[in-house]
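Input record, target 12 of the design panel.
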């Protein structure tokens, strides 16, 4: 499904957006019958509350959606999108004294709310289309690209590992490259060893579904941005096997790959003036006789040795080889995205995307992009004092130090050891919405992609 706005010339019905502090003024503007109806149905303009306004013949001629208070809007993104499931099919347009940012949030939320994942329910009835005209002052191309990229990310994360292993992720990756006339290459199986990607191979070799490194290049002019996404299509934990409770959501362990692919779609669809490279190490972390073992020592592509103290800390291993590869050429910005640590969830919960960087200009741009894209992020520190924690003594690095604290920070410090470029950002995302929210159904979710999309021009001086 490709989300889209309604034809601007199509007949439409008004959806009045009314905040709590403006309810009395709005009621005064209504007809006597409309005001009586809204009063009788106890409409208080709470965020997302909807009332249909009937015409004299009984048909719906308009609707009202509550915009709540400033406090409620801070607590809940995309509240106006609740109207999507309450309105009858047809074309609607927003009315009300909204600023451009408020219109943009409503319009983007409307598009995101159209998402359905019904692949495994072929008999499921699709709801009739409730479409919106893009409000004046908003950028329909930008919002549609954001929504389509998010839909790709959600689809990938939501698909179970039985139908989305390394080969299937590769197929989607190559389809994306074909669509936007990008160059793509794939290194598979034992060729990873032959071409010096030992840690990607070590993590994925136990699976009958061969590990691989996916590599896409797009664009001919402008600064080079390299995106690296963790593509662990399922994570059992390897020989340090997870309990069943820890394994139940591990189809989403390729959420970093899904998110960078969604971001790449946005960049290419909007034809941003950059050169883009996307690297995805795609593996399954499963168990067999040749599985990676605790206390194995691996020599990475960069030459650093890594003691494997936990085979369930495999994401940083595959990312490390890919990051080292990314830095073998001149690149202006390197960004890694991964569902990397439970520690990040403990720190900030599922709704925030924590990120690491030492680049002050990137921080300012990203914070602005996060606000404009309704895509919250939170800066975490590359805390140098913890560097010694990831040095086990027997090897250069430890993939799972027994420190007991700051697990997301030590993972980020581990990755930074493989990056030679000064402009580096790492996102430790969750990639999942645990409970239904406006415009965000329970299930797979992109995090940080919209913020990055809007931040890239300022980050790169475009």
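The sequence produced for target 12 reads:
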């Amino acid at each position: 499904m490709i989300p889209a706005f309604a034809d601007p010339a199509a007949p439409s019905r008004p959806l009045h957006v009314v905040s709590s502090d403006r309810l009395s003024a709005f009621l005064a503007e209504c007809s006597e019958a409309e005001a009586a109806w809204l009063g009788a149905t106890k409409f208080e303009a709470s965020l997302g509350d909807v009332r249909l306004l009937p015409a004299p013949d009984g048909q719906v001629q308009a609707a009202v959606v509550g915009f709540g208070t400033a406090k409620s809007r801070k607590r809940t993104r995309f509240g106006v999108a609740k109207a999507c499931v309450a309105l009858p099919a047809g074309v609607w347009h927003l009315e009300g004294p909204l600023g451009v940012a408020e219109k943009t949030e409503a319009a983007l939320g409307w598009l995101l709310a159209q998402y359905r994942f019904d692949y495994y329910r072929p008999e499921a009835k699709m709801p009739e289309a409730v479409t919106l005209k893009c409000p004046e002052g908003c950028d329909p191309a930008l919002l549609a690209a954001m929504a389509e990229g998010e839909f790709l990310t959600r689809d990938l994360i939501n698909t179970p590992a039985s139908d989305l292993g390394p080969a299937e992720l590769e197929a989607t990756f190559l389809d994306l490259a074909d669509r936007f006339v990008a160059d793509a290459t794939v290194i598979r199986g034992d060729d990873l060893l032959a071409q010096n990607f030992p840690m990607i191979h070590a993590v994925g070799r136990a699976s009958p579904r061969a590990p691989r490194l996916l590599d896409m290049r797009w664009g001919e002019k402008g600064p080079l941005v390299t995106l690296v996404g963790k593509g662990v299509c399922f994570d059992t934990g390897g020989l340090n096997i997870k309990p069943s409770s820890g394994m139940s959501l591990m189809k989403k362990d390729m959420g970093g790959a899904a998110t960078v692919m969604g971001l790449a779609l946005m960049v290419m669809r909007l034809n941003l003036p950059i050169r883009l490279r996307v690297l995805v190490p795609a593996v399954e972390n499963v168990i067999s006789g040749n599985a990676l073992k605790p206390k194995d020592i691996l020599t990475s592509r960069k030459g650093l040795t890594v003691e494997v103290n936990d085979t369930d800390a495999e994401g940083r291993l595959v990312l490390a080889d890919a990051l080292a590869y990314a830095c073998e050429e001149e690149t202006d910005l390197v960004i890694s995205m991964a569902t990397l640590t439970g520690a990040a969830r403990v720190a900030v919960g599922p709704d925030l995307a924590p990120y690491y960087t030492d680049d002050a200009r990137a921080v300012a741009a990203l914070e602005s992009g996060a606000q404009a894209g309704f895509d919250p992020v939170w800066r975490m520190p590359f805390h140098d004092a913890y560097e010694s924690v990831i040095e086990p003594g027997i090897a250069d690095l430890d993939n799972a130090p027994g420190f007991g604290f700051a697990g997301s920070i030590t993972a980020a410090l581990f990755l930074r050891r493989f990056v030679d470029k000064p402009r580096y950002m790492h996102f430790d995302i969750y990639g999942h919405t645990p409970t239904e929210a406006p415009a965000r159904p329970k299930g797979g979710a992109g995090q940080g992609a919209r913020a990055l999309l809007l931040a890239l021009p300022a980050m790169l001086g475009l």
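Residues 47 and 68 are 4 Å apart (CA to CA).
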